[in-house]
Design a protein that fits this description.
It is a single chain. By secondary structure, the chain is an alpha+beta fold. The protein contains 14 helices and 16 strands. The strands form four sheets. The chain has a six-stranded mixed sheet with strand order 6-7-8-1-14-13, sandwiched between helices. A hairpin with a 3-residue loop joins strand 2 and strand 3.
Length: 487
């Protein structure tokens, strides 16, 4: 059976990883304690969580695999069974069973977990559990390497490991899994050469089919047009210099603000054609403006990278990355929320009309034909501060409650990884009737990030001004009614 090989996009997240830039996605969640006698009180023990995870691993085989690298850079890595796999290595406790952690201590331990890279010679994921917090809640941190999943499939994995019902049965652990013997260097090299030849042949045949058919020629020309637009609009336009693009270290902190989604939904109606994502980006622009003003910086526009899912309905259970990237100007310099929303809505409408996401996807797909050294250079250029100032990623979550062994998820803050010379990323996670904005940062390179939750709250409060500003003018008064004006 053919081994699953990383795509050039998947592998790019390995190429840009460094001792100071860890390419894992993840989330930090808070769960309410359970109060069902059938499951016990409080939160799950580490043993119970390990059993729950073990019982579901048969549905997620990638969780028991590691990467194997062909020698001499002959091809992208492949997934092979991890001979040393044990759930105990990947699901660990932050504290003792009866130790109640203060919330600040849990946050510090979560930051410590997120500050450590995943081991490349093991399965690329980790879960850390705080069975009991001082307020009675339960804390959990999960991280997965970006080479394994994108944001949307990370949510799918989280849902696979959580429960849809509060009284769900505990999965039975153990499925008699035995790891397959890993291939040696010679076998990896031969398979890589064979796969590379097959890919090149398929690419040539596909191009020939497109060129020889009228419809195919139109599709090819359209793809080239969208790719050219993506190059001119996104790649060739450099990002401005910014205080968020500085040298970073390995330490990370995750801050967040959770709010009801209702104000954002209401604000969406203030501008015809605006989306919830446009409003969320307006909030981010307002928060970054506030952050600049707090530090006596002149608010300047930023070029942000927005990941866009290209995953189809048939691919919802597949892992790997099915994403493209678009770039827009975030109008941090504009004072009024209404002006920021209009500017963002115009920018997002333009890249949708031009279909630059599929143009970016075509560019990313072309990485596969580059020789290995050029792939390395292309990946690092794409993740450089010349290309963009920061990532803002909107990850949709479930609209229904999910549970961790009977404990209902209250809020979850997403982790969007930081390449080198990017001190901040922002994640947006919608769950049930609320939305969480998170800031993931190097606290030494960007100490102001501690103020980001307050800045986000202030930007959301400003949405009321947006509604008033964008509200339609009142109807004219009847002729027989005298208008009274102030002197």
């Amino acid at each position: 059976m053919a081994r699953s090989r990383l795509t050039p996009l998947d592998s790019s997240f390995l190429r840009v990883e460094s001792p100071t830039a860890h390419m894992h996605v993840g989330w930090k969640g808070i769960f309410s304690p359970r109060s069902d006698p059938r499951h016990g009180w409080g939160g799950p023990s580490i043993g119970e969580l390990r059993q729950a995870v073990s019982g579901r691993l048969r549905h997620a085989p990638r969780f028991r695999q590691r990467l194997a690298f062909p020698p001499a850079g002959l091809g992208e890595p492949v997934w092979v069974d991890d001979e040393r796999f044990s759930v105990e290595h990947h699901v660990v406790a932050m504290s003792g069973a009866h130790e109640a952690l203060p919330r600040a201590r849990f946050d510090a331990l979560a930051d410590d977990c997120l500050s450590r890279p995943l081991e490349r010679d093991r399965a690329l994921w980790r879960i850390e559990l705080a069975p009991m917090l001082e307020d009675g809640n339960v804390g959990l941190v999960m991280k997965v390497h970006h080479a394994m999943v994108d944001g949307k499939s990370a949510v799918e994995l989280a849902l696979l490991l959580l429960d849809m019902a509060q009284d769900a049965d505990l999965p039975q652990s153990g499925d008699d899994w035995t790891p397959a013997v890993a291939p040696g260097a010679r076998r990896l090299a031969m398979e890589a050469i064979a796969d590379a030849g097959g890919e090149s042949l398929r690419a040539v045949r596909s191009a020939a089919r497109l060129a020889s058919s009228p419809r195919g020629g139109v599709r090819l020309a359209d793809t080239l047009r969208r790719a050219a637009l993506a190059v001119s609009e996104d790649v060739m336009r450099p990002a401005p210099s910014s205080y968020v693009n500085v040298a970073i270290g390995p330490r990370r902190t995750l801050v967040h603000h959770t709010t009801p989604i209702k104000p954002l939904l209401a604000a969406r109606k203030a501008l015809v054609g605006a989306t919830l994502n446009d409003v969320a980006l307006t909030v981010v622009a307002g928060a970054l403006r506030d952050l600049s003003l707090r530090s006596d910086r002149v608010p300047e526009p930023m070029k942000i990278m927005v990941p866009v899912s290209t995953r189809t309905a048939e691919e919802t259970v597949d892992l790997g990355n099915r994403i493209s990237f678009v770039f827009i100007e975030l109008p941090v310099h504009l004072h009024r929320p209404a002006d920021r929303l209009v500017r963002i809505q115009e920018a997002t409408a333009r890249f949708k009309k031009d279909d630059r996401a599929s143009g970016g996807e075509a560019i990313l797909g072309a990485l596969g034909v580059l020789p290995d050294p050029l792939r390395d250079a292309a990946a690092k250029l794409a993740a450089s501060p010349r290309m963009y100032n920061l990532t803002v990623s909107n990850v949709p979550g479930p609209r229904f409650p999910v549970y961790l062994r009977g404990c209902e998820l209250q809020e979850a803050a997403p982790v969007i990884p930081l390449p080198d010379h990017h001190a901040l990323s922002i994640g947006i996670f919608t769950y049930r009737d609320q939305v969480t904005f998170s800031g993931y940062a190097d606290p030494a390179a960007l100490p102001d990030v501690v103020h980001l939750p307050d800045a986000i709250a202030a930007a959301i409060a400003q949405l009321d001004q947006l509604q008033l500003t964008a509200a339609p003018a009142p109807p004219p008064l009847p002729a027989n009614v005298r208008r009274i004006t102030a002197a």
